[in-house]
Amino acid sequence: MLNALTAEWRREWIQLRRYPTEMLSELVVIVLVFYGLFLGASYMAGGAIFSGRLSDIIVGYVLWTLSMMSVGTMGWTISNEAQNGTLEQVFLSPFGAWFILLLRNMASVVISLLFTVITLFSVMAITHHYLVVSLWDVVPALLMIASAMGLGYLVASVTILMKRSQQLLNLLQFILLFLIMSPTASLSGPWRWVGIIAPFAPVVALLRNMMTKGESILSAGDWLIWSVVNAVLWLLVGLTVFAWAQKKAKRRGNLSHY
Amino acid sequence: MLEVDGLVKRYKTKDRKVVEAVKGIGFSLEAGRILAFLGPNGAGKTTTIKMIAGLINPDEGDVTVNGYSVSGKPKEALREIGAVLEGSRNLYWRLTPLENFEYWAGIRGVSRKVARERGRELMSELGLENKLGSTVQQLSRGMQQQVAICAALIHTPSLLLLDEPTLGLDLDASDRIQEYVLKLAHERGVGIVLTTHQMEIAQALADYVSIIQSGTLTLEGLKSEVLERYAGRSYLFELGAVASVEVRRKVEARGGVWSSKVEFRVVLDDPTDIYDLMRVLEPTAIVKMVRETADLAMIFREHTRMASASEEALRGVTS
């Protein structure tokens, strides 16, 4: 398994290194976004904003982009591999396609995170404004990415069966944005379950408690537990549906010819 | 080494009809042997190959490779299988051969060090050691196919599936691949299932021959036995003038296949049938009559023609 992990990493890295213009344009976009966030927030709210709200915006933005990347990577990988004529070889891996997709997703997230961190530090050094981000913020980030990977498997399942998933991905982005923006955590009665079961909902509540109320992750009430449950649930749902979709695709014989 | 037992594959068409693409196929292959799996387009070759590789799930039957069932123990079975599939690139074109080997070996659980060593070894066997650093897209089509074969062998599988490995390649590349496939089987003990439409390649490589038509195996056996079965039964006739439509029909009714307006081939089970055929041809002059040695191209042509005819006859009876 370690060999598979390192192979996936190396492949991602080689592709980045070999085509520096792609890497450069990705970096430029991230730099511009962060620079815009820093300067825009500074202009609108004055210097005081940098102590609190801006870090929330940046963390929120990073989490959102990483999550969306996790949701989309697996489906994109399947259609891209099919177009490249390598999908069948991926399915010949004894580890199973689900594992290769997971590795690829992890590699993309980590490389993207690396880019983001480097860019963030560079922008902070240039603007002399420093964000205060606790290491504990990593926990909800990981939980959010785990949920996103579960959704990623769902998108991959649709891709494998329907061969197209771009429209679904676009729709999913809006649904997830709605779920994140809605105050699902304050719902009561039977509706409370929506705030627990809906993807990302409890982890967003957890983050809100941590960032706006300044609570520590451990004192953020039940939201930490619900966030773990939510992440595990969506990951399991995604994996189960993907296993079913893979079986169905193999029964139909449509693992290629996209 | 490879046991294919009673494979059945049914597909649903768009109008919800069930079509049986593969109808209870079974065969086996020992290590170090090459099986030429032949058949016309749409006969079920690729479906069978993909069922062996676990890429398509059969509705009935099973495949075992070195004792591991592809459906029951896929992880173990897949470690024993390498495949180069037709219509696929099988490689990342933006990577070099060596980088491809590292990747494909990695996702099969082989370490980078072993992949590099083995990749170099495989490429030098094919005389491509100086291409290790070029990206795959920079290589010729023939070289790409040779690299794909190396990548399929990177985890030292005991079974190699080659679906049309020489399709669209020039003679030189095709010869290199053929030479290498023979070496793999006979010197390294790799079992090879090969599909091809190029009968001369099947003839040159195969130890065993199977012909599939409409999802059913219609001929199978050792190549030498198959050739022996047909030896001396094929005749080539060349006429002195263009045969009339009536004569053409009569020849065809006796199994003759016209290769031009004045030339046809026919396989005769009973050599005395030749008198009947000569009577049919009267009064057209026969300028040449040659008893041919059997080859796979002739056997394939004759066999698929006969199988189609009996299938049509059967359809006529049942409808």
Structure overview:
The complex is a heterodimer of chains A (258) and B (319). The mean pLDDT of chain A is 81. In chain A, helix 2 packs across helix 5 and helix 3 packs parallel to helix 6. Chain A has one domain. Chain A is built from 10 helices and no strands. Chain A is 78% helix and 0% strand. Chain A is mainly alpha-helical. Chain B folds into 2 domains: 221 residues, 3-Layer(aba) Sandwich (Rossmann fold); 91 residues, Alpha-Beta Plaits, CATH 3.30.70. Chain B is 39% helix and 26% strand. In chain B, strands 6-7-8-3-9-10 form a 6-stranded mixed sheet, with helices on both faces. In chain B, strand 7, helix 6 and strand 8 form a beta-alpha-beta unit. The mean pLDDT of chain B is 88. The chains are: A mainly alpha (258), B alpha/beta (319). Chains A and B meet through helix 1, helix 4 and helix 10 of A and helix 2 and helix 3 of B.
Question: How many helical stretches of chain A?
Answer: 10
| DSSP strand count of chain A | 0
E-strand count of chain B: 14
State which percent range the strand residues of chain B make up: 25-35%
Please give the domain count of chain B. 2
The CATH architecture assignment of the largest domain in chain B turns out to be 3-Layer(aba) Sandwich
Keywords (chain A): Membrane, Transmembrane, Transmembrane helix
Transmembrane segments (chain A): 27-46, 58-79, 85-103, 110-132, 138-161, 168-185, 191-211, 223-245
Domain ABC-2 type transporter transmembrane (chain A): 56-239
GO molecular function, one term (chain A): ABC-type transporter activity
